[in-house]
Automatic annotation (TrEMBL):
InterPro entries: Acyl_CoA_acyltransferase (IPR016181), GNAT_dom (IPR000182), N-acetyltransferase (IPR051531). It holds the Pfam family Acetyltransf_3. Signal peptide: none annotated. This is N-acetyltransferase domain-containing protein. It comes from the Bacteria. It comes from Sphingomonas yabuuchiae. Transmembrane segments: none annotated. Residues 7-167 form the N-acetyltransferase domain.
Amino acid sequence: MIQTERLTLRPYTVADYDAYAAMVADPVVVRHAGTPMTGEEAWMRLLRFIGYWSVFSHGLFAVLNRKTGQYLGETGFMDFRREVTPRLNTMPEAAWVFTSAAHGKGYAFEAATAAHRWMDEHHAPPATQCIISPANLESIRLAERLGYVLHDRPTYRGEALRFVRTR
């Protein structure tokens, strides 16, 4: 578990299902990453996230408001094995997604900064990477604030993306 001034980051549990399913069903949240998910799709993805921790000792953190316990979103690192062209290498892929209610409050930067620090301290990868839709200006700005730089422009599921990585 990680705590920041305003947030708690912890691995997902099955108790997070309702909040997670609501987030990934929100068209505003997923507009740059696909279509809203059904409850079944959210359940399977949540189970994948929970299991990933047991295999790799890292993964995506559920991000909660430290005072209220309200679910705000997620951030962390996984190897999604995305079928992009050109292929991503095996360095950890950073990810962040936040509920509509959490947008514009600085939670994503606070949480992602804490997750990057944790990853560096516990796993020390030589670098990390992320892919972002070119239309997702908020995520591009966040990636730049986290130290990511444009590296390539891969194609994923027919869409051109920005591939950024840390130095």
